[in-house]
Amino acid sequence: MEGDKMKADIKNRLNRIEGQIRGIHRMIDNDEGCTDVLVQIAAVRSAINKVGGLILENYTKDCIKGSICNQEGMNSIDELIEVVLKFMK
């Protein structure tokens, strides 16, 4: 995905996530059922994971790929592993 297009996609997704969070606030204020709130929280978690996945994909394709081509491969692979492990926490 091109840089500007990817940025726009990520920002769009983050705006929707913000809307979902505001919706959860309203649900809490309106004393909606725990099940409904938990479903919305799961949706937010999934959306955040998708954004993280897109950023990780871009990082891998652009940054790591360039480093491997420049003979910095092992350091880049170690860095990628570190980033993936942090992302998965």
UniProtKB/TrEMBL annotation:
GO terms for biological process: negative regulation of DNA-templated transcription. It comes from the Bacteria. One of its GO terms (molecular function) is metal ion binding. InterPro entries: Metal_Tscrpt_repr, Metal_Tscrpt_repr_sf. This is Copper-sensing transcriptional repressor CsoR. It comes from Oxobacter pfennigii.
